[in-house]
Amino acid sequence: MAKDPYEILKKFWGYDTFKQNQLEIIKDVLAGSDVLALLPTGGGKSLCFQVPALALEGLCVVISPLIALIQDQVNRLSKQGIKAIGLSAGISRDRLIELLDNCDYGGVKFLYMSPERLQQPMVLERLSRMKISLIAIDEAHCISSWGHDFRPAYLKCTSLRAVTNAPMIALTATATRKVQVDIVTNLSLEGVKIHKASFLRHNISYHVTQVEDKGYYLKEICFKASQSVIVYVNSRRMVGVLFNELNSAGLGVATYHGGLSKIEREAALSDWIKDHAKIMIATNAFGMGIDKGNVSDVIHFQIPESLENYYQESGRAGRDGKPANAIILWATPDVTQLKNQFIDPMAALKEVQLVYRKLNAFLRIPYGEGNEQTYQFSFNGFVSQYALKTLKTYNALKTLDQFGIIRLEENFDKRTTIKYVCSKEQLYDYMDSNEKMKPIILNLSRTYGGLFEFDTKIDLHLLSKKTAKSVADIQKDLEQLHNDHLIALDLYTTDLKVVYLLPREDERTIAPFAKRIENTYKERIEKVNAMISYVTQSTHCRNKVLLDYFDEKSKECGMCDYCRQKTTPQELLLNDLCEAILSLLEENNFTSRQLVSTLEKPKELVLNSIQYLLKEGQIEINSQNEYVKK
Known about the structure:
Elements: H1 5-13, H2 22-30, E1 35-38, H3 47-55, E2 59-63, H4 67-79, E3 84-86, H5 93-105, E4 110-113, H6 121-127, E5 132-137, E6 168-172, H7 177-186, E7 193-196, E8 204-210, H8 214-224, E9 228-232, H9 236-248, E10 253-256, H10 262-273, E11 279-282, E12 295-300, H11 307-314, E13 324-330, H12 332-342, H13 349-363, E14 374-377, H14 379-385, H15 390-402, E15 406-408, E16 416-420, H16 424-433, H17 438-447, E17 456-458, H18 460-467, H19 471-483, E18 487-490, E19 496-500, H20 507-536, H21 542-549, H22 561-564, H23 569-573, H24 576-587, H25 592-599, H26 603-615, E20 619-621, E21 627-629
Parallel strand pairs: 1-6, 1-7, 2-4, 2-5, 3-4, 5-6, 8-13, 9-11, 9-12, 10-11, 12-13
Antiparallel strand pairs: 14-19, 15-19, 16-17, 16-18, 20-21
């Protein structure tokens, strides 16, 4: 007999009422229906499967994409007195059997695992013997090749249908109509009940500001922020750059990216969660599963890859319901940089086909053979032999992996990492007394930022080219620096492995996937362009543009930069501030910071006037980032 959801909510979470759509979702799950739940970031997705799982007899199996997220959920449930287990990476077979035994006999209510676990026959066999009450697929957009986080292993989730008749609930915070269709189809959701809450965040004010001196305005926003701040960037190098700038300005800063060790990431997160550091500077590796209430500002210092990413990341502001800001700072070069980073390296269908042909030749695989065979593979040797572009080739191989043509070993993108463990003065002294080590040290310093702050991934082949030394000699140099206590070194030299999942039949192998590969390529370009359009447009409400993208109609929010400064061109032409700016530029060139200081008017009004004059072609930016009257 199912227990009352309100009693469970009060007993374990201390709440008296549910948020929007939660109760309706829970009722459908308890009625045995398959459910697709689309709830905004911070909308309480976890309760939608945790509450009914506690009301039902049996085990709830939860598929989640990140080990850190799994561990966080397990820890939270355990603190509430709820038995939960997570199958973390790297556990031994004996430990895996022990944990599964606990699920059988130990009264465990939640079993969390990554989708990759479903590729283990033993796990599926053991699950088939358990009394499973519910299957929860978290971050379900990962199952769609249209999604921004497509993860091929999620396609294995349908294997759970063969071991249990339990209902399935799929949950996500970001899904366009195409992604929703993919989720329902790929998970074989039957008679699915779809619940879509409004993605509108009433307390978040969206702002996009074009400035030439982003660092200055970033510091200004961080100093004025009432509570915690997240600053998102697109690269680990930029994390290091901004850390140095904000730290030097006296701001309390923590940093987070995928290149940090687990201990470093946990320490940084702890400092920020406990408010020991006001600001978190991070790549998009930071955020999934992070639930901190008092974030007053989420700032994107670089344009994010897609509106899906932006919605999720900006939605980490204002979880406490208080007014919050989502801000994008951008300069004209950022648009080109975004395209260079996310569009140029992408592999179109013809490039995927080319790489597949070259791969067959490189590995000397006869026509019709290769199926289920494993081959040693030197990626850098492959790229070098055929004069291929590194990133485009990498993405082509990942595409072949995503569509099940080949499988790349788990550590395909692992690189050697280093970090300086000495002071700059000690490094200079070392170079003075070790002339032969100068080239490697100088090239490291010129090529990679943040070496004194972070474990940094380095490319041995790139250093080989820059120093005109062999890779073997570069390895020896790094080992010498490590032995002399100048760097911490994690040297990774193992060749890669490629597993052929289908026999080599050239064009015929790829043909069944060709249309989807082509569509995925076009879709990803459209996503980047939609993001650029959002940033560069100044004629529509920001919130409305964002919600329209997710197929939700809305009215103007009245809070974003457009709504606050909505003014007709005729009125702006008569505005004294525009005339004052043009008058100043008659005499000299000015940066925006100088104009704000000289005019002594509200900064936002000055910046909007500058943007209007730029749009009208009355002023332009010179190479010194100064405004010039045309």
